[in-house]
Amino acid sequence: GVAGLPTQQKDLLLFGTWLELASAQQLKKGLDVLFAEGHSFTLLLKTVRGGYIEADGRAGGGRAILRLRAVAGRKQDLAKILDQHRQLVRDTIAGRTLLNALPMPAWFRGADGRLEWVNEAYVKAVDAGSGAEVRERQIELLETRQREAVKVALDKGAAYRDRVHLISEGARKAHDVVILPLDGAAVGAAIDVAALETAQGELVRHVAAYERTLDRVATGVAIFGPDQRLAFFNEAYLKLWLLDADWLASKPSDGEILDRLRELSRLPEVGNYRDWRSKILGAYRTGTDYDDWWHLLDGRTIHVVSAQRPDGGLTYLYDDVTERFALESRYNALIDAQRETLDNLKEGVAVFATDGRLKLFNSAFAQIWRLSRSTLGEGPHIDEFITQCLGLYDDMPTWAGISRAVTGISDRRQPLAAQMTRADQAVIDFAVSPLPDGATLITFVNVTDTKRYEQTLIERNDALVAADRLKNQFISHVSYELRTPLTNIIGFGELLSSPRTGELNSKQREYLSDIAASSRTLLAIINDILDLATIDAGALELKLAPVKVAAVIDTAVLGIRDRASRARLNLDIAVADDTQEFIADESRVRQVLYNLLSNAIGFSKPGDTIGIKAWREAGMTAFMIEDSGVGIPKEQQMRVLERFESRSQGSKHRGAGLGLSI
After folding, report:
1. Which end of the chain has fewer CB atoms within 10 angstroms, the N or the C?
2. Average pLDDT of span 28-57
3. 549 with 621: CB under 8 angstroms?
4. Please, are residues 555 and 491 in contact by the beta-carbon 8 Å criterion?
5. What's the pLDDT score for residue 637?
């Protein structure tokens, strides 16, 4: 009938499952002694469900006997009292241990007013040897006057709280003393706040210094506390908004100040004042900073910035930028007009300051001397500018004259004008003019005459005519001198391969096959060369007719299928359902596809798949040859379509470089 006692005999020995930890430990210890030494025991134990039992251990007949009995009546009451006593002892020990670990003095007085217990910090504060010495000699931390004030408060049943100065560890320090009544007795503690008091004093002095500083700045400053009420404003704020100083001293709220400014027409005109006001005041809640430009009805522009304070308040900065905006606007308009004027001049214009550094230039100046605007924007010295231009014009006497005109200190500087012919044959007129403020204006004009351009055009035209004549001769010559013999070689090779000429052994057939393949490759190269020459000569005519997509792909694939098979490559052909026929020169399309497929085979590895796709896109028929080769580096992608450009990129393939150009 005991709460928590196991109902199964096998569970009785599992003490930790049904007894409280302390009771289980007591019982185990008693049993260990009984088994080892035969000493009997009687214990009052508590179950995890709050029941109490008596455990009696005895030795008899060479055996250990354990009897468990429920306790009732006075024994049960005694068990509860003992349990509570143990708990109180533990709590007392824990409390004293905690208080001893605290760095602040703590003590306990009995009903007779005598010190009954003090912690280690108390002993250290009064320079005593131990707590026993403090209790024996009744060494007080509080002074007599302070103890009398404590007695008055405790006699009224109230707690005593005050900041007092005590002699602690041989020095007089500020402490926050708290003493609480406790059934006629009293418990107290003294918290050292000397550092806090010093910091607070420093803070007060710093705040006063900051306020004096802020009163001297031209920017209006207003500080609002977490309650949104004005905590500080400087003289600039008062002058900016022309509000009553006494009213501001009454600490109005942020919203009340906005409403007052609106009544006085000193806020920007907004469509929805309520929403605008809520957005500004919402910074207290969201913690976001506010940054805006207020264009007031009186024509002023105020830059308003707010920042969140650690205490949840806001600091506002109000900067009247009206005059600055006006000056910037006029200045920017003037500079833009001058710069636009200079940049539209064909003459290169540069102004060098009295220190010899470039301070103004236009686009034509940078273009004439092939210098970047960023380099010129750094304000190079005239000597640095000359050094950068020596590659185009290296006549040092001329540059020396320009340098002297810029850096000379004579009050009677003379203008300078001359002409220079640069290494690139450009003819440049220049003029150096002193300015009233001591700066120097230099202008450069490209005056290379038209005859030079005319002569260049004539020479180029003659070269084109000659090149066209050579192309035509080349086409005629190659047609008869290269194509005809090669055709004969191919024809005789096919004749030798014919069964009618007799049986051939495997080696002979292999040689004839190589001859035929090499001949066809050479014929393809010659045809490509002829095609390029024909295209350049403008003699190539396309025979446009309906072309079946599938058929032209099959024909192109037929020409490379043997090569693909020998290279152990797979071909994947995919033609969209809506892509059946288009208008083109079938032979040329087949030639393009064949060249692309040949290129893909050359850059593929055994086992790779070459994809051939065709689809309709924007009214056109698109073809794509796709392989998984090494790819083409970005810097070479624009060059692969040039003639005779062939790059293996790590593969064994290296052709004549004509296929992709065609």
Report:
1. N
2. 86
3. yes
4. no
5. 62
